[in-house]
Amino acid sequence: MRTIKAAKTIMSLVNDLRSMSREEKADFYQSKCDYYQGIVELGLVVSAVTTIFFIYSDYMINGSVLPTLIPRLSILIYVAIFFLVTHYFPNNHRITVIMDFFLGHGMVIAASWTAYNLVDRSNSIEGIIIVNLIWLVVGFAATTRDTIINGIIFIIEIVITNTFNHYTNYSLIMALEIPIIIGIMFVHYVMTAYYLDHYRVTQKLELAMVTDPLTQVYNRHLLEKIISENTIKDVMPGEHIAVALIDIDDFKKINDENGHYTGDLTLLYMGQKLSKETHGNDYVIRYGGEEFVVILRNCDVNNACARMEQFRQDIANAKDTPVPFTISVGVSCYTGDYSKTLQNVDNALYKAKNTGKNKVVVM
Question: Residue 205 to residues 21, 24, 92, 144, 280: CA-CA distances in angstroms?
Fold first, then answer.
């Protein structure tokens, strides 16, 4: 029963993975790489450095360390290149995965070079099979396609190195290696599917952290994600952004005269209405109490004013509100300084509230 249940779970996750858009799939594999790369890098580097100590077994075979000293030490060049490239491209999962495989194949090349200088190569089969443990580890951070390509490259490497190393058990090596690679590919596919389950749970938790449970729009925690060093992230050069601060007029009176339940319904109505009336790349945030911040992307201040004025009129004339109410709105263009922009919209809202309410003011 457990096996059948696990198979059904994997198939469901596999279908989910296949249905992802290109952008979501890229984010998924970036997340997978970030999650596993620490252990992958540690395992690779420790394995690479450890191979140097095989010089003692070389001595036992050859009676001297000189023939294999340079081949063994050559792995340090691969380690140095690995650290150099990953240092300069720390957040690019494609480059990170390529460098993981680069270091893994560096160990294969160093081992093949060493084997060429050994008088007895009968132990090559054990070494080649052990290398599969490296591919198993590297695959934690890689895509399934990466694993397939890597397996094919490794088999080609065995074929090529056999032309000058003349492995004693070459036929046996190939007979064992091909099913092992297929097995590793299958294991990685299963692991990727299971990581997808973790990825989906993480997404839900992250969304819950930035979602206001009453209005179902974002809460103030979102600002920690989209604001960095007092600027809005991912703003394109020349992109116009406007910020609006909306306040429900006389909200305390709504609560006092109709009860807090009606007040909650009014807030929920506002959240749903704002979500419908804004664009997909805009941010609607419950800023606190009855106040909402709306960050309007690709929108200049004149367009923002027109949109907020239309929204104000829709609220004032709506027939489906829990109770009749109006709103006041402050609008300002984003200056590149988020705190200054928020201060401007706050001043605009203050002016709207103190000059009659139920209006839009731009500053």
Answer: 21, 17, 24, 26, 21
β-sheet bridge partners, residue 331: 244, 362
Neighbours of 324 (CB within 10 A): 11
Using CA of residue 47, residue 52, residue 53, residue 55, what is the dihedral sign? positive
Contact predicate 51/109, CB 8 Å: no
Pairing relationship of beta strands 291-296 and 283-288 according to DSSP bridges: antiparallel
Which two three-digit tokens encode residue 153?
């490259």
**231, 199, 280, 265 alpha-carbon torsion, rounded to 10°:** -100
Do the Cβ atoms of 114 and 58 come closer than 8 Å? yes
First and final CA of the chain: distance in angstroms? Answer: 66
Q: Give the amino acid at 285.
A: I
- Whole-structure pTM value: 0.71
Amino acid letter, 14: V
Residue 48 has pLDDT above 90, yes or no: yes
Give the burial class of 147: count Cβ atoms within 10 A of its Cβ; 0-12 exposed, 13-18 middle, 19 or more buried. buried
Q: Which DSSP helix (H) or strand (E) runs through 332?
A: strand 327-333
pLDDT tens readout for residues 165-202: 888 888 888 888 888 888 888 888 888 888 888 898 98
Beta carbons within 8 Å of 202's beta carbon, 6+ residues apart: 31
Count other C-beta atoms under 10 Å from residue 321's C-beta: 15
